[in-house]
Amino acid sequence: MYRWKSRLLLAVGVALLSACGSGNSSNSSMTATSDPLSFYQHSAVFVNNTTLYAWGANESGQIGNGTTSNSSVPVLVTRFANYSAGNGVAIGSNHTLAFQKYSTVRAWGFNRYGQLGNGLTADNQTPNSSVPVTVRKWGSRASLSGVTAVAAGGYFSLALDRNGTVWSWGKNDHGQLGRLSNQNTFGNYSSQMADKVVVAAVSSPLTGVTAIAAGGAHALALKNDGTVWGWGYNEWGQVGDGSPHDKPNHFFPVLVPFNDTPPRTVTIAKIAAGSSHSLALDSDGFIWAWGYNYFGQLGNGLHGENVYSETPVKISIPAPGLTSAALIAAGASHSLAYDPVTDILYAWGYNVFGQLGDGTTINRYTPVAISGFTLKVLNGTLPASISASWDHSHARKTDGSWWSWGENSVGQLGIGNQTNQFSPVRVRGM
Known about the structure:
Layout: H1 3-17, E1 42-47, E2 51-56, E3 71-76, E4 86-91, E5 95-100, E6 105-109, E7 129-134, E8 147-152, E9 156-161, E10 166-171, E11 190-196, E12 209-214, E13 218-223, E14 228-233, E15 249-256, E16 268-273, E17 277-282, E18 287-292, E19 308-315, E20 327-330, E21 334-339, E22 344-349, E23 364-369, E24 385-388, E25 392-396, E26 402-406, E27 421-426
Antiparallel strand pairs: 1-2, 2-3, 4-5, 5-6, 6-7, 8-9, 9-10, 10-11, 12-13, 13-14, 14-15, 16-17, 17-18, 18-19, 20-21, 21-22, 22-23, 24-25, 25-26, 26-27
């Protein structure tokens, strides 16, 4: 088990021994007494852009159906049932974010560090929420709206608005919020409401952003000029700026360099963040990876405890050079990439639960094709999509059907049981 997860589990154990406060609110009867023991073990998807379904682990109410019971099949998140134009959802460590096009952001689940963004935390006697609550802006307490994307990490949250500005809230012990706290100091504190990520201590907002990604305790932003900026925890180089190993935290966004041989201008088209590693796809179809690499999640053929990269390295898919329309996804310690031209889904990294989907439990240090599983359907109208969670993965085919594989101990695959799957299987009813 790699060090980040080991340390996180140790922190959970300490929290269980020293429980924090509890209480009740009008939207939930739950109390939050400690960090939950599961991480990213639930799933959520919009169906037909109007209705949100979720399933899997639910001890903190993260599937949003008003209960704390796990579900191995998709259940309706009622608050979104009658909304229209729903187009964004993200799962974090025991919490979930979702929004309708340009409308307010909603959050539910674990809230000890303010990752729900409603101005309350478990530590101030407010429980988690098993139904969606409104994310608020710091200062005015107005709803966070006009959002085009959300991303959820390990106890923190991000949102991107239509003006290209990034907002953050939740835990900030490693600078993963990319800004000062309301106490104007750094440290192990929380921000209970959304505020803007800033470029430097002068508090100039990070602007011109087109995409965001949230990892375990680090974050990435892609700007409209094709550059990538990272911030947060960087002990294994997951931020990617090449800074010294003994200075792991970045409290503000820094520019990530992409240096190719022979020299060329690298313009990034897509980004993804895993637990402690990061991915990027450039406009020429090449994939770059950086950060922790114990299980080969960087895909460069290397692996081991002290094998990591503090700057992006270009990796080779079996068919070199995809297209800028390719898809990438990063899980806890595994990675996915989809080539829409050849209709091949690739996977690499940690595979003990079958999260690579290649029918085995063998770790892969370079990308391998998931044999026999294609995403294009002749009569389909939707674009294909892929996602990677903690130790499980999802893909949507062009006909709208959802498929999953990997760890399934609490029903996070949505197939009606708790049996791990080593190859893709269809989500129940989807």
